[in-house]
Specification:
- The protein is mostly helical.
- The protein has five helices and no strands.
- 54% of the residues lie in helices and 0% in strands.
- The longest helix has 14 residues.
- The chain is elongated and about 50 Å long.
């Protein structure tokens, strides 16, 4: 990951690694094997926000995602 972060700091575009080189990075390859449940992650964040009294921007605009109920 460190190498990818440093790549974005290289000012000269022609000196930066090409996309195919970046895709060979172990961090990127390893992330393909990970399973991510984004819906659960968002629910967890929204529950934490509710516990701290923080209103969701979606709730304030009145446009909750499908299947979501305001409690």
């Amino acid at each position: 990951m460190y190498k990818i972060s440093i790549c974005s700091l290289i000012k000269a575009v022609n000196q930066r690694p090409k996309k195919n080189e970046l895709l060979e990075n172990l961090f990127i390859k390893g992330s393909d094997a990970e399973s991510v449940d984004l819906a659960s992650y968002i629910r967890e964040i929204m529950a934490a926000m509710e516990n701290y009294g923080v209103e969701s921007p979606l709730i304030m605009q009145g446009s909750l995602p499908l299947g979501t109920q305001r409690g």
